Amino acid sequence: METIRDNDLDSMSLEELKSEVIKLRAGIRQHRDASGHNLCWYCPELWDLLPEKVEPKPEIPSEEEFLECCRIYRNSFTTKEQLDEEREIILAIDLETDQ
């Protein structure tokens, strides 16, 4: 992939630079605040904020690998406290079944 240079920034005024930063921040916040399936990695709206226009051709892994990565991503939102609670519930169930 060719290196993209941001030479266009050199000719922008302070007001144009501020406007560009505001636009980029809005796009990043929109993606950050997304939920559900809008969290997926394919986000052309965010990519369209860049000055260079390209037609992305993402390489998609096998369905099995893709879904496994989705599972890992989803599980990354589980907190330590939630894991501790789940372990306590499992331990309590195990103790009940042992009796």
Number of strands: 0
Continuous helix count: 4
Structural class, from secondary structure content? Answer: mainly alpha
- How helix-rich are the residues, as a percent range? 55-70%
Evaluate the radius of gyration.
Answer: 22 Å
Total count of domains: 2
Beta-strand residue percentage: under 5%
Unreliable stretches, pLDDT < 50, 5 or more residues?
Answer: none
Order of helices and strands: HHHH
Q: Give a short account of the largest sheet.
A: none
Q: Give the distance, in angstroms, between the N- and C-terminal Cα atoms.
A: 63 Å
Task: Quote the average pLDDT.
Answer: 81
In one word, what is the shape? elongated
Give a structural overview.
The chain starts with 13 loop residues before the first helix and ends with a helix. The chain is built from four helices and no strands. Helix content is 56%, strand content 0%. It has 99 residues and is an all-alpha fold. The protein folds into two domains: 1-58, no CATH class; 59-99, no CATH class. The mean pLDDT is 81.
